[in-house]
Amino acid sequence: MTYSIIGSGSVGAAIARQFARSGITVGIANTRGPQSIAPMASELGDKVVPLTLQAALDADVIILAVPFRAHRDVAQAAASWKGKVVIDATNAYGVPLSELDNLPSSAIVAKAFPGASLVKAFNHLPANVLAENPLGAGGRRVIFLSSDDEAASATVAALVERLGYAPVSLGKIAGGGQLVQARDRSWAPLIFQDLFKKEQ
């Protein structure tokens, strides 16, 4: 299984830090090219590999860590998304409901990636918290997931575990997934909830 992160801002860098900490190789790309990511990758170590956008799209699992509206540009960069797992870490705060057709933002993202299996994850914590060691408070920091594809959700849950977090499934996007999706200028109830799952 190969992984890449699209977006090298605060969220993308925070997730890359967790891959490096866990010893899992991940590619990272943005629209400015690999040279713009080189200093961050150098700091994090050889598990974080700067890539071109096209090279990053070859991964099996692709994490979208871009501003919400930029997902369209990423979607158009690949000829086919068939068989890919796309992790939607975006937040649509401030995007009018009319622009979303009154749907959950992840449903809009999923439409832009036909053939891919979309999982909502990694979007509910601020970047500075996401960058912290997920082990603490006698347990592991929770990452919420929601997806309409059970197999893809299981794939992402396994990755979340490998990164040291505790995955908590919220079910399908239209149901539990609404609990972690911003709508217009409102934050959903589970956004910013920094929760830990106690070890048994």
Tally of helical segments: 7
N/C terminus separation: 29 Å
- Alpha-beta content class: alpha/beta
Largest sheet: 10 strands, mixed
How would you sum up the global shape? Answer: globular
Q: What is the CATH T-level topology?
A: Rossmann fold
Indicate the percent of residues in helices: 25-40%
Number of domains: 1
CATH architecture: 3-Layer(aba) Sandwich
CATH superfamily: NAD(P)-binding Rossmann-like Domain
Radius of gyration: 16 Å
Order of helices and strands: EHEHEHEHEHEHEEHEE
Mean pLDDT comes to: 95
Report strand %: 15-25%
The CATH class turns out to be Alpha Beta
Uncertain segments of ≥5 residues (pLDDT<50)? Answer: none
Report the count of strand segments: 10
Write the layout of secondary structure elements.
Layout: E1 3-6, H1 10-22, E2 26-29, H2 38-44, E3 48-50, H3 53-56, E4 61-64, H4 71-76, E5 85-88, H5 105-112, E6 117-120, H6 127-130, E7 135-136, E8 139-147, H7 150-162, E9 166-169, E10 196-198
Parallel strand pairs: 1-2, 1-4, 2-3, 4-5, 5-6, 8-9
Antiparallel strand pairs: 6-8, 7-8, 8-10
Textual characterization of the structure:
It is a single chain. It contains seven helices and ten strands. With 200 residues, the protein is α/β, with parallel strands linked by helices. It has one domain (3-198): NAD(P)-binding Rossmann-like Domain (Rossmann fold, 3-Layer(aba) Sandwich), CATH 3.40.50.720. Strands 1, 2, 3, 4, 5, 6, 7, 8, 9 and 10 form a ten-stranded mixed sheet that branches. The two termini are 29 Å apart. The mean pLDDT is 95. It comes from Paraburkholderia sartisoli. InterPro entries: NAD(P)-bd_dom_sf, P5C_Rdtase_cat_N, STEAP_metalloreductase. One of its GO terms (molecular function) is oxidoreductase activity. This is Pyrroline-5-carboxylate reductase catalytic N-terminal domain-containing protein.
